[in-house]
Structure formats: structure tokens, C-alpha cells
Amino acid sequence: MDRQYRNFFAICGVLIFVAIATTDENPDKNFSNFESSVDICRKCECTNYTDLLILNCSKRDLHNTLSNWPNHKNKALRASFSYNIITTLEQFPASNCSAMLSVDHCGIKFLAPGLFENMKNVKYVDMSHNLITIEQLSSEKFKGPYTNSEFEPIEIIHLNLAYNQIHSLPKSLFEHMPRLKHLNLEGNTLKF
Ligand SMILES: *[C@@H]1O[C@H](CO)[C@@H](O)[C@H](O)[C@H]1NC(C)=O
Ligand SMILES: *[C@@H]1O[C@H](CO)[C@@H](O)[C@H](O)[C@H]1NC(C)=O
Ligand SMILES: *[C@@H]1O[C@H](CO)[C@@H](O)[C@H](O)[C@H]1NC(C)=O
Ligand SMILES: *[C@@H]1O[C@H](CO)[C@@H](O)[C@H](O)[C@H]1NC(C)=O
């Protein structure tokens, strides 16, 4: 596998170098940056079905995800933030509903700890086509809420990490994802 991807790896190396050389982003920067949820259904598109609220925030020139979800009662939630420029992906807002989230094609480099801590019933997450490296992937990024002195699992079944910059995976990454069934790592330069 690694031979096949050596050229690609070399190109990636150059891109990573260029990225590092042209930014001074700090991964521990102030994590209080969220897109205001006020009038979010004007900025994005909300489609409110009987059992499902669809939020389309794709291609809205957003730099952050939201501070709160639009009101979705007990309905499932499907939210897309595809094709925005979100350098740091912050914790998603709180919801106890089943959810599908897409943050693909956003140029994401940094992940906040406990991304899904406040929405542990998330089932499907698409983080493909970003700039996520192995340094950003640890079990604490996927931890659930802390109750009774331990982290609850998150319900994620389908995780798409295709087309990022992931070269290996720590086994502990999946510690808080006991239901995970589908993991897509296509288009990464994995070395075993
Ligand atoms: C983050 O930035 C906001 C606004 O610039 C400020 O009010 C807040 O205190 C900062 N939080 C931290 C933890 O530095
Ligand atoms: C979401 O909104 C974007 C931008 O307006 C549009 O291009 C896209 O087709 C929409 N997606 C869906 C599933 O409606
Ligand atoms: C969606 O519909 C429910 C009622 O079924 C309502 O309570 C809620 O406010 C609506 N949400 C939005 C964002 O329109
Ligand atoms: C989710 O459920 C917990 C426990 O029942 C509750 O404390 C919390 O307020 C709920 N969160 C939301 C956003 O509804």
C-alpha cells in the first residue's frame, strides 16, 4: 500500500509544509467562536418534516459551526456544513436527537475535544475532504458526556474520514465509539 502512494505522499508533504509555513494557527486557540444561531433558518435552509429537520448550511461562507441547533423538538436532525471554510471544528451544539452531520470540504485542520459530547446520539458523520492529520485524532475528540465518573460512548455508526491527511490510526481512537460499523479512510496515505 505505501509504495503505491509514495508519490502522493511526497506531494502531500509539500502541501503540509506550505500550509505550516503560511499559517500561525494555534490549535489551543480560544474555542468560543461559533456562528450565531439567531435567524439561522434565514442564513441556511431549514426543511421541517414531521420526524426530521434538515438544515442546509452548505456553501454559506461560514467559518464556524453553530452555537445552537434550530428548534427541532424530538425530531431527527440532518445538518450539512459542506463547502465552508472552518479551520477549527468546535464542539457541536447540544441535542439528544438522532443526527447526521456533514462537515466535508471545509478545510478543517483542528478538532476541539469532545466534538459530540453534547450530542451523543449522532449516528453519521462525514468529515471527508479536509486537512485532518493523525495528531488531531485522539479518543478524547470523540468522547461522550462525562457522567458517573466515566465518559459515555457516542452512538456513531458511520464515520467518513476519507481524503484527509491521516497516515496511521491509534487503536484507542475508537474507545468511545462502540457502535462504529463503517469507517471510510479512502484517499489517505495509510502506512501499516
Ligand atoms: C475568547 O474570546 C472572547 C471574545 O474575543 C472572549 O470574550 C473570551 O473571554 C475568550 N475566552 C477565552 C477562554 O480566552
Ligand atoms: C444546500 O444549499 C446549497 C447552496 O445553496 C445548494 O447548492 C445545495 O444544492 C443544497 N443542498 C440540498 C441537499 O438541498
Ligand atoms: C419545526 O417544527 C416543530 C413542530 O413540529 C416546531 O416546534 C419547530 O419550531 C420547527 N422548527 C423550525 C426550525 O422551524
Ligand atoms: C438531554 O438529556 C439529558 C438527560 O435526560 C438532559 O439533562 C439534557 O438537558 C438534554 N439536552 C437537551 C439539549 O435536550
Automatic annotation (TrEMBL):
InterPro entries: Dev_Immune_Receptor (IPR050328), Leu-rich_rpt (IPR001611), LRR_dom_sf (IPR032675)
Protein name in the entry: Uncharacterized protein
UniProt entry keywords in alphabetical sequence: Signal
Source organism of this protein record: Cryptolaemus montrouzieri
Keyword Signal applies: yes
Pfam families (alphabetical): LRR_8 (PF13855)
Record has Signal as a keyword: yes
Signal sequence range: 1-23
